[in-house]
Amino acid sequence: MRHTIEGTTMPVLKLDLDPGDKIVAESGELSWLSAGIDLSSGLGGGASAGGLMNAMKRKVAGGSLFMTEYTAREPGELAFAARVPGHIVQVDVDGSHEYRIHRHGFLCATGGVSLELAFQQKFSSGLFGGDGFRLQKLVGEGLAFVELSGELIERELQAGEVLRVHPGHVGMFEPAVSFEITTVPGIANKLFGSDGLFLAKLTGPGRIWLQTMPLPVLASALAPYLAASGGTAAGEGALAGVGAAKLIGGLLRGE
């Protein structure tokens, strides 16, 4: 198998498969494929045997209930495009390199890699953290591709080095990095601040990947233009939506 990541703002992952190659992805991620590539959807996928329990855990972590396995009968091309402006990152997964990724991050992987629910290192992380702290885990052995939104910032945390991050900006990190919940400092910040009550506390050593445009932040920015009530407001919202679509399309075409 060979792969290329093409494009800039809206990249696409293109995989050139040889006979017998297998790729696993969540249902609904496919962009295009050659005629000689078969696909089969089910509860399993990847290195694990699958089953309803694993599928439910994957769903709790923010993934899809069903996975799709692509198998090449003959040489062909398989492609997965980014859903929003951002980056596609390649990671090598093995016994010493497992990764925790944000709940919308998994794009696809070779057949030896599976996607699982990442249990929080502290119970409070899952209890109070909300959607931003629901993590997935890449395990097994093989090659995986992760989608991160917006610009990509990579950091290598030294032993004991701490970085507090808004939860949506945590894209991916190595398992050696400690992940827990901390609150925003100061009573006034807790009561009147608009940055949220909780932050992710990442403690080194280990590598982390931060994303600058989390999907919840993007959705929140677009909400005023989409959630209009009444005839006039609805019309204005529709016009704003069309204008935004044209603007984004022009930017992507370089106009």
Largest sheet: 6 strands, antiparallel
How many structural domains?
Answer: 2
* Secondary-structure-derived class: alpha+beta
Helical percent range?
A: 10-25%
What proportion strand? 35-45%
User: Architecture of the largest domain in CATH?
Assistant: 4-Layer Sandwich
Radius of gyration: 20 Å
* N-end to C-end Cα span: 36 Å
What sort of overall outline do the alpha carbons produce when their principal axes are compared? globular
Total number of strands: 19
The CATH topology of the largest domain comes to Double-stranded beta-helix
Mean pLDDT: 78
Spatial order of the strands in the main sheet? 5-6-3-10-13-8
**DSSP helix count?**
5
Full CATH superfamily name of the largest domain: Mitochondrial biogenesis AIM24
Summarize this structure briefly.
This protein is an alpha+beta fold and 255 residues long. The chain has helices spanning 52-60, 123-128, 187-192, 215-226, 231-253, and strands at 2-6, 12-17, 22-26, 32-33, 37-42, 67-72, 76-81, 86-93, 99-102, 106-110, 113-117, 135-140, 142-149, 152-157, 162-165, 170-173, 178-183, 198-203, 206-211.
What are the salient characteristics of this protein?
Double-stranded beta-helix; 41% strand; six-stranded antiparallel beta sheet; 2 domains; 19 strands; 255 residues
